[in-house]
Task: inverse folding
């Protein structure tokens, strides 16, 4: 299962540009990646800033190891940076943030060094959004400092906070990084009992960091544990489990970040739920009490959500990486059929509505969160589109 999880990981925070208005219930391709030097397989959430969309592709670029790109209001794309073998990062899988005028992100591999398959254990990088000039802020060593940062970083109080999926002399870490000096501090090392393999971005709430681990926490789910929601004090490093998932009918393997709204967190699990195609859940922040809002059923209903939810106009919106319209172009190793969906959930009733089913030529396998602005959604799919390398799309709800 670990190989499948990693492939999904490898597979927007604001949004709409004035010239990008969508038409009712119509999905429109804003840009299709061409592969090669242009980049391919955009798997992370988009970032909107001052009329421009910024994002990353997992592979491609002149160095073949992924790109940082921008798309303007006309749909014109510019590659800001191409990652390359060697001491540069490789394969950016987390979302970008804008912090003090610069773009910050992570690469899940690269950086050089002898550990982590001789390619490096991942990096935190900085890119100038105007010039594309890139600087590696930190290179993970794969030892006590952690390795493989699949999620992006968050900024708080002048520092960057993030997670590594592995190492730290355990099962992954939560770290703090000074973006000016590159000094890294490990705040917490995960163990089997409190969760392991944190793949999703952190959320700051009430001075504490919250996140999810894809596995660990109990003895279920093939003895690996079904994953957790955790809380961490960034000052002391004290960590505690808010909720431990238990598979069916509870969720399992949360790969998405948390959405904080009111006194609750909302999120998704990639597996578990009543039909074992994943679930959307709500957790009371104070008590840790969990409610399954909706269990995905696969096929036309959609299944296996990996992206964070967003809240707009009284409803939760998200993407399911599989399911939807029957299509032989989108059959994975487990014979799950469908190219993915965009869905809506009423948080009060749990009623789910499929807004759009991908079919391949319009996109396939949406693994990143949506973004919303001025009445339209924007997102990416890691595959499909007119070129097969993944598109950026817009959808009017």
Result:
């Amino acid at each position: 299962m670990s190989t499948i999880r990693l492939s999904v990981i490898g597979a927007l925070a604001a949004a709409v540009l004035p010239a990008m208005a969508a038409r009712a219930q119509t999905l429109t391709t804003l840009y299709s990646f061409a592969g090669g030097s242009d980049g391919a397989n955009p798997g992370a959430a988009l970032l909107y800033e001052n009329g421009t969309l910024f994002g990353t592709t997992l592979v491609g670029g002149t160095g073949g190891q992924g790109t940082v790109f921008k798309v303007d209001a006309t749909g014109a794309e510019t590659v800001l940076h191409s990652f390359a073998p060697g001491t540069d990062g490789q394969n950016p899988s987390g979302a970008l943030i804008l912090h003090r005028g610069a773009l910050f992100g992570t690469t899940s591999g690269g950086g050089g060094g002898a550990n982590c398959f001789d390619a490096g254990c991942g990096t935190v990088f900085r890119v100038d959004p105007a010039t594309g000039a890139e600087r590696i802020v930190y290179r993970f060593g794969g030892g006590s400092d952690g390795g493989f940062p699949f999620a992006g970083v968050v900024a708080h109080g002048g520092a960057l906070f993030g997670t590594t999926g592995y190492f730290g002399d355990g099962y992954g870490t939560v770290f703090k990084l000074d973006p000016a000096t590159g000094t890294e501090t490990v705040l917490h090392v995960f163990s089997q009992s409190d969760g392991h393999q944190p793949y999703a971005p952190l959320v700051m709430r009430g001075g504490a960091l919250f996140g999810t681990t894809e596995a660990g926490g109990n003895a279920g789910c093939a003895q690996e544990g079904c994953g957790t929601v955790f809380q961490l004090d960034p000052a002391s490093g004290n960590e505690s489990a808010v909720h431990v998932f238990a598979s069916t009918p509870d969720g399992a393997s949360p790969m998405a970040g948390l959405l904080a709204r009111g006194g609750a967190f909302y999120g998704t699990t990639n597996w578990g739920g009543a039909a074992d195609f994943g679930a959307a859940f709500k957790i009371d922040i104070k008590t840790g009490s969990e409610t399954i809002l909706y269990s995905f059923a696969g096929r036309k209903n959609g299944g296996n959500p990996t992206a964070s939810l967003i809240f707009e106009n009284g409803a939760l919106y998200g993407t399911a990486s599989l399911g939807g319209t029957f299509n032989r172009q989108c059959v994975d190793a487990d014979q799950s059929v469908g190219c993915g969906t965009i869905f809506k959930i009423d948080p009060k009733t749990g009623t789910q509505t499929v807004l759009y089913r991908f079919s391949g030529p319009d996109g396939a396998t949406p693994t990143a969160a949506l973004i919303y602005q001025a009445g339209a959604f924007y997102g990416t799919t890691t595959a499909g589109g007119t070129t097969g390398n993944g598109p950026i799309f817009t959808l009017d709800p």
In short: The longest strand covers residues 27-32.
